[in-house]
Amino acid sequence: MKRRDFLTTGAVGGAATALASPAIAQSNPVLQWRLQSSYPKSLDTIYGAAEVFAKAVLEASDGNFQIQVFAAGEIVPPLAIVEGVQSGTVEMGQTGSYFYIGLDPAFAFGTSLPFGPNTRFQQAWFNEAGGNDLFNEFLAGYNIHHLPLGGTGAQMGGWFRKEINTLADLKGLKMRIGGLSGMILQRLGLVPSQIAAGDVYPSLERGTIDAAEFVGPYDDEKLGLSKIAPYYYYPGFWEGAATLSLFIGLEKWNELPERYRSILTMAAGYAGALQLAKYDAQNAEALRRLVAGGAQLRVFPGDVLQASYDAANAFYAETSAKSASFKTLYDHQMKFRDDTLPWLQISEYAYDTLLLQASQGAK
Amino acid sequence: MKRRDFLTTGAVGGAATALASPAIAQSNPVLQWRLQSSYPKSLDTIYGAAEVFAKAVLEASDGNFQIQVFAAGEIVPPLAIVEGVQSGTVEMGQTGSYFYIGLDPAFAFGTSLPFGPNTRFQQAWFNEAGGNDLFNEFLAGYNIHHLPLGGTGAQMGGWFRKEINTLADLKGLKMRIGGLSGMILQRLGLVPSQIAAGDVYPSLERGTIDAAEFVGPYDDEKLGLSKIAPYYYYPGFWEGAATLSLFIGLEKWNELPERYRSILTMAAGYAGALQLAKYDAQNAEALRRLVAGGAQLRVFPGDVLQASYDAANAFYAETSAKSASFKTLYDHQMKFRDDTLPWLQISEYAYDTLLLQASQGAK
């Protein structure tokens, strides 16, 4: 009875005969796309997520939708994904949306804002609070469609040659830190600079910089900074929920059969969730190795955090006055953050508190 | 050059001709499966995830892999998913794995253990630390294949007619709470009982029970308990990371083309991530309504949490001595929890602390 009802259901009954229909050729075309990452293969968790994504799309499409993944710079410059996608040089790119704040500060919302929602609530904002739709309305002006592709979780505050005991210690401190974060910390006297990952070690060793932030334990370990800048600070409040982005050429996206749009969306959600899980497992192991190797964990002093928060809010107010796109997304995301904090506090945070207390009691 | 390399790549070149090959008929067969949930449609976030999952599979398979979703009891009894899948009455089910601890306590690991890893690290355990593979080794003995399908996040501790000020207040307290949690709290003098959701309100009103736990604000709100049992406790340490499960008949799973196994795995990951995001957004709103309607938030006293933790550990030691399957999974999961707690503490927890402090400072 139930099975008979099922077979007579319009949509499903129709689909059951689809193999014989010419429509399948339309919904299952052979496509060859190129995806370039802004990241090198050495950042294997991030780059690997692009590969997991492409493989998932290939499998779901029965081998018909083929996305070849290229590392940073193989086709277009690492930070030229917007231009690459707009010109059609690549159909899609994996990038950090905040690399493009020079075009409009609203690009930051694809990644995360300093003091923005944590990773879980950032995902809820994207997927269930209309955040990604709103971001895509903004990106339509750049002919781009956006799919979040996982993230790193809360990052570390980076490596410092000397301890930071008070806000005054930031004055004149030369730090490798970019984007919005650098602009905010500059207001506190810090001197931000953008330095390629491979140059961080010699720059710290030579004293060209006094501190450097990168990602988290697993990726940071590869740079080997603990011996020359042993103070490893947390929390990395400027990237509390750093999300990776897939940028897709909007016309390419719109031309896709609906089925392929579903597959891309699903594969990005799937690959993104696996990426975060991989980072969590890897970071925990790397942290232990780093501490065993001499890294000194330090929490940022309260006055540094408070002043950074105030500076961020001042920066957001000024930026909202200048960019209507930024203001729309900022108001929407921060209302969601504030509306959801009480629930975070009594659920996840209370449970985490319990686990941490129990674990300390057990020692 | 790059494009030419791409076209001559073996795997991709082969796939490009797949449309003309008879192999596609094998990898893309028309299948009609039935999925029954253990949950009613009224738990729309959980039930909805099964629908999102089935729709994603339908779309990715171009309408060929059709999974019809049935609510609790429509084909087999709500808590008979194991038997339903084993007998082939349904090909798959959405359930809470811990409903089946009567068969073996190791079934609890599909859901979560009291004081087990939090939601994010539970997912990392499943997906990146070998947890789901280990769980599937156990489930193979029951002819079941398991895919995690999202979760609720940390649940609430439930509704109490009177405040709990000390451990002694649990003695003789009649509470609607089931499974492992009930067995653990029973050791502290609490009297657990299993009551269907629809009977919770009259049971509390009549005084048949003194307290009841259910899920979290969004689902709890529908039961309307705040007027008769206004003290709403947290954290729900017995379900700190409650995961939902897809149980699939192992032979059915093994018979699937590899492509369909990939699609099911991907769709479960995708639908699960959306479910958690939906709960986070919904719970935050429902919590505000509940508090406005008179619910009194209370944190469990320290001695209750400590005694529960000790009772849980004693229970786990005894259960490990009785069930080798339980011991294998328990040792594996708890090592992962303990190994990852330091990373949780300095990353997500430190960032959450900062957000909560900033928000309180702003009030």
Question: What's a quick, concise take on this entry?
Answer:
Chains A, B: Keywords: Metal-binding, Periplasm, Signal. Helix content of chain A is 52%, strand content 15%.
Describe the structure.
The structure is a homodimer. The first copy, chain A, has a domain of about 170 residues: D-Maltodextrin-Binding Protein, domain 2 (3-Layer(aba) Sandwich), CATH 3.40.190. The first copy, chain A, contains 14 helices and 11 strands. Chain A has a 6-stranded mixed β-sheet. A 5-stranded mixed β-sheet of chain A has the order 2-1-3-10-4, with helices on both faces. In chain A, helix 8 links the parallel strand 6 and strand 7. In chain A, helix 4 packs antiparallel against helix 12, helix 7 packs antiparallel against helix 14 and helix 10 crosses helix 12. The longest helix of chain A is centred in the last third of the chain and has 39 residues. The N and C termini of chain A lie far apart (about 60 Å). At the A-B interface, helix 1, helix 2, helix 3, helix 4 and strand 2 of A face helix 1, helix 2, helix 3, helix 4 and strand 2 of B. Chains A, B: It is found in: Periplasm. Chains A, B: It comes from Paracoccus zhejiangensis. Chains A, B: InterPro entries: DctP_fam, SBP_TakP-like, TAT_signal, TAT_signal_bac_arc, TRAP_DctP_sf.
